[in-house]
UniProtKB/TrEMBL annotation, chain B:
It comes from Gluconobacter cerinus. One of its GO terms (molecular function) is ATP hydrolysis activity. This is ABC transporter domain-containing protein. It is found in: Cell inner membrane. Its main location: membrane. Keywords: ATP-binding, Cell inner membrane, Cell membrane, Membrane, Nucleotide-binding, Translocase, Transport. The lineage of its organism: Bacteria, Pseudomonadati, Pseudomonadota, Alphaproteobacteria, Acetobacterales.
TrEMBL record, chain C:
Signal peptide: none annotated. It holds the Pfam family BPD_transp_1. It is a multi-pass membrane protein. The keyword Transmembrane applies. Residues 70-258 form the ABC transmembrane type-1 domain. GO terms for cellular component: plasma membrane. CDD domains: TM_PBP2. GO terms for biological process: transmembrane transport. InterPro entries: BP-dependent_transpt_permease, MetI-like, MetI-like_sf. This is ABC transporter permease.
Automatic annotation (TrEMBL), chain D:
The keyword ATP-binding applies. Belongs to the ABC transporter superfamily. GO terms for biological process: transmembrane transport. Residues 16-254 form the ABC transporter domain. This is ABC transporter ATP-binding protein. GO terms for molecular function: ATP binding; ATP hydrolysis activity. SMART domains: AAA. It comes from the Bacteria. Keywords: ATP-binding, Nucleotide-binding, Transport. SUPFAM superfamilies: P-loop containing nucleoside triphosphate hydrolases. InterPro entries: AAA+_ATPase, ABC_transp_ATP-bind, ABC_transporter-like_ATP-bd, ABC_transporter-like_CS, P-loop_NTPase.
From TrEMBL, chain E:
Keywords: Cell membrane, Membrane, Transmembrane, Transmembrane helix, Transport. Its main location: membrane. This is Peptide ABC transporter permease. It is found in: Cell membrane. It comes from Gluconobacter cerinus. InterPro entries: BPD_transp_1_N, MetI-like, MetI-like_sf.
Length: 471, 277, 277, 258, 316
């Protein structure tokens, strides 16, 4: 007989389930296109697809979008979906009192008007080529005013699954939405279990207590599943970019030679050995190999401690100079930092390791930009734009990059955009504002009989509507 | 007249050291026998041997016949029924000899509970009478008091009540009046003597108070370094002490001889250094 | 027989500690206090002459990594216990003298005892970032109230003795009295307590750093080592076994040493009753 | 008329003990309106039933405990406050012997240290101190080699003599002895009593001698004070009090004595 | 005039109040703003200000302290920043695993520790005693988290007797819950049992050397009778006091063991809440733990007082 329930392991418990209140990836994993739906969605290949908006047209030089909404859509509490919900959700996200993590995106929306209940016209302040792409984000989900404020503990959306229960610290259960407007999901219930400890997670998988674990956090123990008749490990991609971020506003990192020296000093292949068990890609710039715009640039800084020492000497950095390397509390960051410190020590720098827990890291490093070096992985897709931000924590500022980025943003020609994107990557590779370390694959451990699970990660999500048990 | 307790060649060793050298004596029913001697001479050891309560590592040999039973070789379960019922003991240290967390009434009652089939109510009544008897009721002490609220003399009387509850044939009293003022001491002695004459109870009284011994004991045993150096009738001992140690004791005692106040006491040469073994 | 056992505890404890701490200290000196080299190319090297226990996932020599960790953990525990002992003893003596100050000290100790050490550590670490200092502080802050209690109890039992009264008669002030009479007489208790505290402190150290509340890398310490190796429990069980056994050996060593010291130091003099073992 | 040591109207209370968690505590009066004195070269015997306040009074006289009210004089000087400068100055003149010779000696100090302790405050140099210690040890008939030994190596009588040596080393005028011979067996008791009498004869010492053993009191006292329930109920020359007791308590105590 | 109980309680209330000030002050000194933590990397200053207002963080610390305490006095513990649910319910939910864990572990520790200690004491100096003592010394030296790891390895991964971790609540059935808590309880209890046993042994030996034991024997008690009716009740008094002192250690152990076994209990909640700057959760949970420890201590000292009449009159 076929099963109709499934339990999925996730590594962190979300802080509430309201995507408009927190950027936590775990919220997306659980709710994206399961509980909440937006006007558009990303499919498993990363393409924008219609969802609550059946179709749309653009007018006024890309400033006005006319969306036609799906009919017969109801929220889980029974309220019908109308244009008013779109208006409410998008304006709420951009309001001054909004706590939306991507509020800046929504402030570009000048107005949402409702010609009738099934049509929504959105007027932007400034044309924005990737508007429908950004509408796929979880924090652009369409909500109901009657339930929006309680979504953190009891999320209500239009999706194929109803929120059923949250045993805090252990699991969230979703239940099939019997009144779903689209194709009804096959699974009756889905449980997301929070298992931060990879060892415990692997035990649970082996014991059959878990059916799948997307984005398994410890490549070094994947070997445990090798001989198991029920489980398989599938390797996918995700936009993982581990970098050694440098404070470009501070001496000595304001000197290109020093940044280059650091890049030469670190054997990034060895990092992949230790951090991703050998399977990964050495990064040359801030773009992951799974990005359509990714360019395989030449390796500008092969491991060369001699060269690193020379460059440091040229830059006037004396052996024994003290530097601090801060890192957040994640395994890859801790391990990578420890190894990086060891490599830097070999070229005469003395590195103090400073473990920070998340709030401190966010506050000190990310918020105030007050740090020397930090190891962090950026996992947002296509985020090279952060190098053009004013207040970015590593304080990179480069007029050439800025100019290129302006052109890129304004362009709506796909070829131009690709060309410009490669140029941007190359610009960063030359400037080496941060030492780009590596990208690693995304491993999903799952029961051999499961089909339909996303293997590549386009966005933090684990849509369950199409997932089924094979006989 | 057959004796109640007849001790023959009793000796006690702790490992290789002899604590008591072979000694013999007898006690008749209703008779008071005193044991004296300097500190550490083995008085308490003798008492504990007769109670069968020597600490681990002590070995005994010889005979101690009590009502035709040899206490030295008596199996523990038989000895247990003797203790508290036939042979009872009042210990040297009144401050620590009572269980601090039980009421004195319960502790006295235990003797009845262990040896008689009395009902709870009867025991309560008996305890009450005993408290009366030892003069505690008069001092406002009741069965529900805890030991720590009692003075040293009062605790000693509780111990006595425990010991005499079952009207034993032999009462061993180890220096049980040392810490008391003369008045309390006298009261307790009177009580014990009354009991002795009422029930033909024999008393083995350990003391270094020669005044007390002279007045209360029929017979005296003098111990020195674990050896019984003198075993005599009280009058004989005080009038004609045989052993030099006994003589020394008597000469120094303030109770035995009437020394003029504010004068030096005669101290025999061999004791003057005050060195103890 | 007890003597024999005494020596056994002391000998076994010292032997375990020496077996662990001598190589640890030598390793530490030899590597001048630095963590063993990371050498990714030689990760998981098998047991060989240059790597007696093989290498870890970072290619570090396991033997010297764990030994350096043992040294670091022990140093943290020793500093924390020293702090707790010094401060706790001083405050405990104040508490023993009673009065308003003594009461205040005892209330503070009560407060300290109500805070589980992990709460202190978690808060200190969040406030300060993970550091050896924070960890030492957390362990010491927990140790102080216990030390206060022990010291107060011990000092109290000395302060009621007549030789303290005699010292006051001799004109000594309270500080002199403490230095000359109280401290020397409670020293055995404090020493024994310190060695059991060391065992406890090592366990706390391991627990805290296991949770990531201890000193940061690259300096190895036993708890963090365990935490980071624990994932390899199946593929490389030695990685988990070695640091675990090392913690155990050290803790056992200090515990046995405490037992041995207790017998050695307390036996000849009056043993204070009610001391926890 | 001036006395060597005099106590006037001493009053002493303690916080009573509540017997349960819920019952409040009430204070207890231990000593009430106690006045007594001792003159040079004289022994005052202090008797009374158990719990009558003898030890408490001894501790107040020696300044170990402060009285609630009342005054204490030494050679007309007010030394009432146990922490006052006058008390401090006269400390060496009033010493005490404790009942339990074991508890009164620090087990971790040598006899030399124990006996010399009261001298540290006197400003004597090391040599003088040493001389005094040896002198006083000779006084109490302890061998010279005793100085480097520890209390546990001595017998009860010898320990009591060490305690006496310590009390004597400052050449005091008054010694308060609280049950100083009660714990000793007859022979040791005799030795210690002889020593006290000797010292009185040679140095003109005064004693306040607390005991419940009337034979001992009779032997050593010039005068006797009787304490009952925290009050002095009778005082007078030893012979008078013992042969013609006035107060019922005294009579009871004497009659009961053998 | 105050009674002893009243003064004992008021003393503890003072301690509790001081603790609340310390906790509050410490939490306010922590770096990292809860709003930043919640809104993440790209939050705008406006959003942060908005959230500050929403969370009530835009007033002075003194006001916040007063609000917190007066809330507590009204039985209101506030709302969790992270989970956006009432703290009270959150903590209550977590207590369903932590409280049973601590109680079961304490019970087990006593159940093993007391008899073992008593047996060792009555055989003191003999082979059995030495063997028991050596074993206890050994057990006392095992780090609890390591023991937990080893037990998982053996009992759940090799023998499959117990689940390897997690706790899904009591709804799944009493025995399922008990099975999930079994290994954590044992891991927590064993070192405590060893400590209890060693203490019981020395306490009982002390008592057996007391004079009143001899009195009872002379009265006619058998060796066993003395042990049960006289010695053990006396020996338990200091053991109970010790348990009071060991409580914080037990709580620490519980937090660590919860983390090893991935049990959603108070310990995990606390560590996570600290990491997320979920201040309402942290401050109330800490206060609850401190109050719990104080309360248990008070209860223990009342029991001890009830057992030991000599203590009546001393401060509880
Ligand atoms: N457990 C023991 N092991 C070895 N020797 C002991 C033990 N108990 C007592 N002794 C020794 O046995 C001897 C006799 O002791 P005992 O207690 O019988 O003396 P005592 O005459 O009662 O003295 P006191 O008048 O001081 O009570 C003493 O020398 C003592 O040191
Ligand atoms: N700190 C205290 N708290 C309560 N009561 C006390 C305290 N000190 C002494 N007492 C009480 O004061 C009374 C007198 O005690 P004290 O020790 O002076 O008597 P004593 O005459 O020396 O008796 P004994 O002959 O038994 O030594 C006793 O009833 C005692 O219980
Ligand atoms: Mg004796
Ligand atoms: Mg007294």
């Amino acid at each position: 007989q076929t099963r109709d329930t499934m339990s999925i392991g996730v590594s962190i418990e979300p802080p509430g389930l309201d995507p408009t209140r927190s950027p936590s990836e775990a919220i997306g994993t659980i709710t994206y296109n399961n509980v909440f739906e937006g006007l558009t969605r990303l499919d498993r290949d990363g393409h924008v697809q219609p969802l609550l908006a059946r179709a749309w047209t653009v007018s006024d030089e890309g400033r006005v979008y006319h969306f036609t909404l799906q009919e017969n859509v109801h929220f889980h509490d029974g309220t019908p979906l109308t244009c008013e919900n779109v208006r409410f959700s998008l304006l709420r996200a951009g309001a001054t009192s909004s706590t939306n993590p991507d509020r800046t995106f929504f402030t570009n929306i000048a107005d949402v008007s409702c010609p009738d209940t099934t049509h929504a016209d959105i007027t932007l302040k400034k044309a924005h080529g990737s508007f429908t792409y950004e509408l796929t984000w979880n924090d652009a989900s369409i909500l109901s005013p009657s339930s929006a404020d309680k979504n953190a503990s009891h999320p209500i959306g239009t999706g194929p699954f109803l929120f059923q229960a949250w045993q805090r610290g252990d699991h969230v259960t979703l239940f099939r939405n019997p009144d779903y407007w689209g194709k009804a999901p096959e699974l009756k219930a889905v449980t997301f279990r929070f298992m931060p400890d990879p060892l415990a997670a692997s035990n649970a998988l082996l014991a059959g207590e878990l059916d799948a674990y997307p984005s398994f956090p410890a490549p070094e123990i994947l070997g445990r599943f090798a001989g198991n008749p029920n489980l398989k490990v599938v390797r996918g991609t995700f936009p993982f970019k581990a970098i050694l971020a440098l404070n470009n506003a501070r001496r000595p990192f304001n000197d290109l030679r020093v940044r280059q020296a650091l890049a030469y000093a670190i054997d990034r292949k060895a990092l992949i050995q230790a951090g991703a068990d050998g399977d990964g890609t050495v990064l040359q710039s801030h773009m992951a190999p799974n990005d359509p715009d990714y360019a395989a640039l030449p390796d500008r800084y092969p491991y060369n401690p001699e060269r690193a020492r020379e460059l440091l000497k040229e830059a006037g950095i004396k052996p024994g100079t003290q530097l601090t390397l801060s890192y957040p509390p994640i395994t890859y960051a801790r391990d990578t930092s420890e190894i990086v410190a060891a490599y830097l020590e070999q070229v005469g720098l003395i590195v103090t390791l400073q473990p920070l827990e998340w709030p401190s890291w966010l506050g000190r490093v990310f918020g105030q930009g007050s740090f020397d070096m930090t190891v962090i992985a950026h996992t947002e897709p296509h985020d090279i734009g952060i190098y053009d931000r004013d207040n970015i924590y590593f304080h990179y500022k480069n007029p050439q990059f800025h100019e290129l980025f302006e052109q890129y943003e304004a362009s709506d020609n796909a070829e131009d955009r690709h060309r410009l994107s490669v140029a941007l990557q190359d610009r960063l590779a030359q400037d080496e504002p941060n030492v780009f370390l590596y990208s690693r694959p995304r491993d999903t451990v799952l029961n051999r009989r499961i089909s339909g699970l996303w293997i590549d990660q386009q966005i933090a999500a684990c849509p369950m509507a199409d997932v089924t048990w094979q006989p | 007249m057959t004796s109640l307790l007849s001790v023959q060649n009793l000796s006690v060793h702790a490992g290789s050291t002899a604590i008591l050298h072979p000694l013999s004596f007898t006690i008749n029913a209703g008779e008071t026998v005193a044991v004296t001697g300097e500190s550490g001479s083995g008085k308490s050891t003798l008492a504990r041997t007769l109670m069968g309560l020597l600490p681990d590592g002590f070995e005994t040999s010889g005979q101690a016949l009590f009502e035709d039973q040899n206490l030295i070789s008596l199996p523990e379960h038989q000895f247990r029924s003797l203790r508290g019922q036939k042979i009872a003991m009042v210990f040297q240290e009144p401050m620590t000899a009572l269980n601090p967390i039980r009421r004195i009434g319960q502790q006295i009652g235990d003797t009845f509970r262990l040896h008689t089939a009395m009902t709870g109510r009867e025991i309560k009544e008996a305890v009450h009478q005993l408290l009366d008897r030892v003069g505690l009721s008069r001092a406002g002490i009741s069965a529900s008091d805890y030991p720590h609220t009692l003075s040293g003399g009062q605790r000693q009387r509780v111990l006595l009540a425990i010991a005499i509850a079952c009207k034993p044939a032999l009462l061993i009293a180890d220096e049980f009046t040392t810490a008391l003022d003369s008045q309390t001491q006298a009261e307790i002695m009177d009580l014990v003597q009354d009991l002795a004459s009422e029930n033909q109870m024999a008393i083995l009284m350990i003391s270094h108070d020669l005044g007390l011994i002279r007045h209360k004991a029929r017979h005296v045993l003098v111990l020195q370094h674990g050896t019984l150096v003198e075993n005599a009738k009280t009058e004989t001992l005080f009038s004609a002490p045989q052993h030099p140690y006994t003589r020394a004791l008597l000469s120094m005692s303030l109770h035995g001889v009437n020394h003029p106040p504010l004068t030096r006491l005669p101290v025999p040469e061999n004791l003057a250094s005050g060195v103890e073994p | 027989m007890t003597r024999l056992r005494t020596n056994r505890s002391l000998i076994a404890g010292s032997a375990l500690l020496l077996a662990c701490l001598v190589p640890a200290t030598l390793t530490w000196i030899w590597r001048s206090g630095r963590s063993p080299l990371i050498d990714i190319a030689h990760r998981y090297a098998p047991i060989s002459f240059s790597h007696p226990l093989g290498t870890d996932p970072f290619g570090r020599d396991i033997a010297s990594y764990v030994l350096t960790g043992a040294f670091n953990s022990t140093v943290i525990a020793v500093i924390a216990v020293t702090l707790a002992t010094v401060i706790g003893t001083a405050l405990g003596l104040v508490a023993a003298y009673g009065g308003v100050r003594g009461k205040a000290v005892m209330s503070t100790a009560d407060l300290g005892l109500a805070f589980p050490p992990i709460l202190i550590a978690a808060m200190l670490v969040t406030a300060q970032g993970a550091s050896a200092t924070g960890e030492i502080l957390a362990i010491a802050l927990f140790g102080i109230p216990a030390q206060i209690r022990i010291t107060r109890q011990a000092a109290h039992s000395i302060l009621v003795l007549d030789y303290i009264a005699a010292a006051r008669m001799a004109g000594l002030n309270s500080i002199d009295t403490i230095l000359r009479h109280v401290l020397p007489n409670i020293a055995p208790i404090l020493i024994v307590h310190a060695s059991t505290s060391l065992a406890l402190a090592l366990l706390s150290e391991a627990g805290l750093s296991y949770l990531g509340l201890g000193a940061p890398p690259p300096q190895p310490d036993l708890g963090r080592t365990l935490a980071s190796y624990q994932i390899h429990i199946f593929d490389h069980p030695l990685l988990v076994a070695i640091p675990g056994v090392t913690v155990m050996v050290l803790v056992l060593g200090f515990n046995l040493l405490g037992d041995g010291l207790r017998d050695l130091l307390e036996r000849p003099f009056n043993r204070l009753k009610g001391q926890p073992s | 008329m001036s006395h060597l040591l005099e106590a006037r109207n001493i009053q002493y209370d303690v916080a009573g003990r509540g017997t349960s968690l819920f019952r409040p505590q009430k204070p207890r009066t231990i000593l009430q309106d106690v006045s007594l004195h001792v003159d040079r070269g004289e022994t005052l015997g202090l008797i009374g039933s158990s719990g009558s306040g003898k030890s408490t009074l001894a501790r107040i006289l020696t300044g170990l405990v402060g009285a609630k009210s009342g005054l204490i004089f030494f050679e007309e000087q007010d030394i009432t406050s146990p922490t006052g400068t006058a008390r401090h100055r006269f400390r060496p003149h009033i010493q005490m012997i404790f009942q339990d010779p074991q508890g009164a000696l620090d087990p971790r100090q040598t006899v030399e240290k124990i006996v010399a302790e009261p001298l540290y405050q006197t400003g004597l140099n090391a040599e003088e101190r040493n001389r005094r210690v040896l002198d006083v040890l000779a006084d109490v008939a302890l061998p010279e080699d005793a100085i480097s030994r520890y209390p546990r190596e001595f017998s009860g009588g010898q320990r009591q003599r060490i305690a006496i040596a310590r009390a004597l080393v400052t050449r005091p005028d008054v010694i308060v002895a609280d049950e100083a011979v009660s714990a000793l067996d007859v022979s040791t008791q005799a030795i210690v009593l002889n020593l006290l009498l000797d010292l009185q004869e040679r140095h003109g010492l005064s004693y306040i001698f607390v005991s419940h053993d009337l034979a001992v009191i009779r032997h050593i006292s010039h005068r006797i004070a009787v304490l009952d329930g925290g009050r002095i109920v009778e005082t007078g020359p030893a012979a008078d009090v013992l042969t013609h007791p006035q107060h019922p308590t005294t009579r009871a105590l004497i009659n009961a004595s053998l | 005039m105050m009674t002893n109980l009243a003064s004992a309680i008021s003393g503890r209330l003072v301690v509790l109040t001081v603790a609340s000030v310390i906790v509050f002050a410490l939490l306010n000194l922590l770096p990292g703003d809860p709003a930043t933590v919640m809104l993440g990397l790209d939050a705008s200053p406006d959003s942060i200000a908005a959230l500050h207002h929403q969370l009530g963080l835009d007033v002075s610390p003194a006001t916040r302290y007063v609000r917190w305490i007066s809330g507590l006095l009204h039985g209101e513990a506030g709302t969790s920043y992270a989970y956006d649910v009432p703290v009270r319910g959150l903590i209550f939910e977590r207590f369903q695993s932590t409280l049973p864990l601590i109680l079961l572990a304490t019970g087990l520790a006593l159940l093993i520790g007391l008899p073992t200690g008593a047996i060792a004491a009555t055989h003191r100096g003999k082979g059995l005693d030495l063997a028991v003592m050596a074993t206890l010394q050994f057990l006392k030296s095992i780090p609890d988290f390591w023991l937990a790891m080893m037990m998982t390895l053996l009992f759940s991964l090799t023998l499959h007797w117990f689940p390897a971790g997690g706790f899904t609540g009591w709804n799944a059935g009493f025995f399922t819950g008990l099975r999930a808590l079994f290994l954590p309880t044992v891991a927590l209890a064993i070192p405590q049992a060893a400590i209890t046993a060693r203490f019981m042994r020395s306490s009982l030996i002390d008592v057996l050397n007391q004079d009143f034991i001899r009195t009872a024997r002379a009265q006619g008690y058998s060796g066993k009778g003395v042990l049960w009716k006289v010695a053990i009740p006396n020996a338990l008094i200091p053991v109970l006091t010790l348990i009071g002192i060991q409580l914080p250690v037990l709580v620490t152990g519980a937090i660590i063991v919860e983390s090893v076994f991935n049990i959603p209990g108070c310990g995990k909640l606390l560590l996570e809440a600290v990491n997320q700057r979920d201040i309402p959760v942290v401050q109330n949970l800490v206060m609850l733990i401190v109050a719990g420890v104080l309360l248990l201590n008070l209860a223990l000292s009342i029991v001890v007082r009830w057992l030991d009449p000599r203590l009546a009159g001393e401060r509880a």
